[in-house]
Sequence to fold (462 residues):
Amino acid sequence: MTIKNTDAIDLIFTEIYKSKNILTSPTSACEKHFTFECVRRYLDISRHLNRRWPYAIRYLQSIYGDDILINVFERFDTTGSTYKNLNDAACGIFFNNTAKNAHIDVELLLYEDFRNGKTGSPAYTTTQPKEKFTLIPYDLDSIYTTLMFYGRAYAPSALYENLILEPGTTYRVNA
Amino acid sequence: MDMNSISLGVSGDINKLKQFICLHRDTTSAYHGAPIKHFSLGVRPWDRLDNSIIDFCATADFTISVHPVDINFSGVIDMAELANLKKITDSLPVSYIEEDIGIWRNGNLFLGAHQTNPPLNKKSLQTTILNANMAKHFFELPIFLENPPVYSELGNIPFWDFYLELCIQSDCSMAFDIGHYLGYCKSKDIAFAIPDAKHEIWNFIKTLHISGIKSWMWNGIPVWLDQHSDPFNIELMDAFKPTITQAYNTKNILLEMEGSSVEVERSNIDLVKKSLKEVSENDNKKH
Fold:
């Protein structure tokens, strides 16, 4: 913690979202309280993400590690300012970060939204639609069922890491 | 002090106000028996009130305050949003505006649980004084500045010195949130302590806020969370009693219970009433 007691609120706000504060062990009571403030916010962001994508998150976290959550936390004070609320900010930053990974990763997020009936999420089907579509070369239903099967039992990371993503044919309908 | 002169209040958004209007005269409602005579309305700049609500409030038998959650009293204030809030406050018989100091917004982002308390230092003090003065004239209403939830505080001015100076320089009152102050005490590793009766701050404290908190030990330090839905606990009520004894200028006690069940609301109201009765009886014995 590098804050001085004369620093302005905006500087403190920025410092709160630095991951070093949650990844290093504080020593003084003052540092511990500041760490708690950072941890509290980190967990709040994580809670928003886990509530929206409870099964896809576990898979992605096992594959890529905690960095996928830390990256959202780190960008919350800057990129977050373009969103309207905490949930939109957490999920929006996470989704855009994931879009930079393998194509299947973001597809799993969209598919989980679809399975949960989230308003505005794209529809998926295994029969070729008449509308414009994107072909996903995976059996998303099987993959997602496995993620639910694992997730409900808090399966160890190794199971996710060793998971072979079932090939197949799924169509995302582009409205 | 005369405990009978203090009214109890509840808070909530527009939907809660609608519910309150229906329930406060219902003889089976916890609000009716209390009685609850004040409502603190949480509004956002884009909220719109139905004409029926506006008409009802114009002749309501309870007082109304407005608690926006978008004014950055310790940062940069968006004047366009302030103007939208004024449209709402102008449409209601608002007694005062109450708002936690600190920052509620980061650009477009409503910070909610990430609302950030100001460091208690000269910079924050000057910014908050300037903004409070501006808002007071803009709204043409009294402003009650609330101490926000504190999990970590890094300034160099003692709590009561900061708020006294803030109230004097801005000519605003203070909404003293007991739970938030308990949090501040934990963040400083000090026991809950309020100034003695002679302290000038009591003259500025016009409303007391009380809401559920969760407290525990974490890595060797006391920590807490602001949980409005939780029942009022012993720690909170133990802090409430000495506070109400000193707060001679307080007009109402606001029970912030957003998200709590009807049972929790009823239990909280009973607890506060019981405490008020105890304080009143002790006061009578002294005299």
Chain B is about 40% helix and 20% strand. The radius of gyration of chain B is 18 Å. The interface with chain A takes residues 74-75, 102-103, 106-114, 116, 118-119, 121-124, 127, 151-156, 187, 189, 218-221, 223, 225 of chain B (CB under 8 Å).
